[in-house]
Automatic annotation (TrEMBL):
InterPro entries: Auxin_embryo_med, HATPase_C_sf, SACS/Nov_dom
Disordered: region residues: 17-63
Native organism taxonomy: Eukaryota, Fungi, Dikarya, Ascomycota, Pezizomycotina
Positions of the Sacsin/Nov domain: 120-209
Name the UniProt record assigns to this protein: Sacsin
One matching Pfam family: SACS
Ranges of Basic and acidic residues composition bias in the record: 33-42
Gene3D superfamilies associated with the record: Histidine kinase-like ATPase, C-terminal domain
Length: 383
């Protein structure tokens, strides 16, 4: 029943917005504002320094893929325009109602189940890091957890090429997350990134020309977060994307669970596609620093058979024999537009038997063996 209501609301809302006249309370005013901003950016930017912008002030509208601002000024204007779009979406009256009906329709199925384990956002950050583009560099992820007098933080550093304008747009709007027609992607950057607000109050991002802060405000606006241009609060690494999370102080059990996850992250690397090395550092009050380096190594054993090894500080820690089978004639799904095949992977440990997980590239739940098909998950990696 609820699904049909959401579908009806979405159909009605899209029809109204599609046929909106220039004096429409949402599209008229907001579009005029956006057109003026378009003009200002176009006049001030040097040739070739523009980044393409959406036609309408909606956070989920797609930007041209692969567009990177060539200066900090252009990146800053892009962030400011996202703020303007979010303000336009907050217009009162009918426009506000239509906007929220559409957001509810688009986000309902994706967020239909709560993330019952807040610390599982760590898997989403791993997934995003694996989806990043690294050029010809060896992909490396650095994770640093700090517990000091200033509070608890989690920092993620990757040596990727940097976020594009499309990536920024996806982070700031759940409904505009990139579709997964690209087989090199294992997730949706927009949806997965929202999970950080289950355990974090503020997030800073430094990537390429971008430097901004996101504040959750308990996810006040369904489906979108508003970025604010701000300098990254810690020294950054050259040619890296850095993400800093200010964690909630309570409950302390979340921090303990997060530290426990960081210390046992080895098997999470098993089915990743790009990341080959993860460095983890844990800095806690009155405790010796804890550091480790995990590396993934793959040895082909034959057609569709390989041996996957996880090394911890240079020592072999986990070994699996992995069997791959292509599955064809899959049903159509918008989240995998243009793809009708998938790989099914089965991994068998060479050591003592133990409980194993079902994966969609990263762990979902205990299933008795290591299996990795491309499933669509309900909620945020819980089923």
């Amino acid at each position: 029943m609820a699904g049909s209501i959401y579908t009806a609301l979405a159909s009605f809302t899209r029809g109204v917005l599609k046929g909106a006249e220039p004096d429409d309370p949402v599209n008229g005013l907001a579009k005029a504002k956006q057109t003026e901003e378009h003009r200002q950016v176009g006049e001030s930017d040097a040739a070739g320094d523009n980044i393409p912008l959406p036609d309408e002030p909606k956070g989920w509208r797609k930007l041209a893929e692969g567009s990177f601002p060539k200066s900090e000024a252009v990146a800053r204007r892009h962030i400011e325009q996202i703020c303007a779009w979010n303000r336009a979406a907050d217009l009162r009256g009918a426009g506000n109602m239509l906007h929220h009906c559409l957001l509810i329709s688009d986000a309902h199925n994706r967020l239909s189940q709560p993330n019952t384990v807040p610390t599982r956002f760590l898997y989403e950050l791993l997934q995003n890091a694996d989806d990043n583009k690294y050029g010809n560099k060896k992909p490396i992820l650095r994770i640093t957890y700090t517990d000091d007098a200033n509070g608890n933080t989690l920092r993620i550093d990757t040596n990727e090429i940097g976020f594009s304008a499309e990536d920024i747009q996806a982070i700031c709007s759940i409904a505009q997350g990139q579709k997964l027609s690209d087989p090199s992607r294992i997730g949706e950057k927009g949806l997965g990134f929202k999970s950080v607000f289950g355990l974090s109050s503020s997030v800073w991002i430094s990537s390429g020309r971008y430097s901004f802060k996101l504040v959750s405000e308990k996810m006040k606006k369904l489906g979108s977060v508003t970025p604010v241009w701000e300098k990254f609060p810690q020294p950054t690494l050259p040619q890296h994307t850095s993400i800093l999370l200010r964690l909630y102080p309570e409950p302390m059990s979340n921090s303990r669970e997060l530290v426990s996850m960081l210390k046992s992250l080895e098997s999470a690397l098993l089915f990743l596609r790009k990341l080959k090395e993860v460095e983890i550092t844990i800095l806690e009050k009155d405790v010796e620093p804890w550091k480790t380096t995990l590396k993934r190594r793959i040895k082909p054993l034959g057609k569709d058979i390989s041996m996957h090894e996880i090394l911890k500080d240079g020592v072999q820690h986990l070994t699996y024999h992995v069997f791959r089978q292509e599955v064809t004639e899959l049903g159509h799904d918008e989240r995998r537009s243009g793809r009708d095949t998938s790989d099914l992977l089965l991994a068998f440990a060479t050591g003592e038997p133990k409980p194993e997980n079902l994966y969609t590239f990263l762990p979902v739940r205990d299933f008795g063996l290591q299996v990795c098909p491309i499933f669509f998950r309900t909620g945020i990696r819980i089923n």
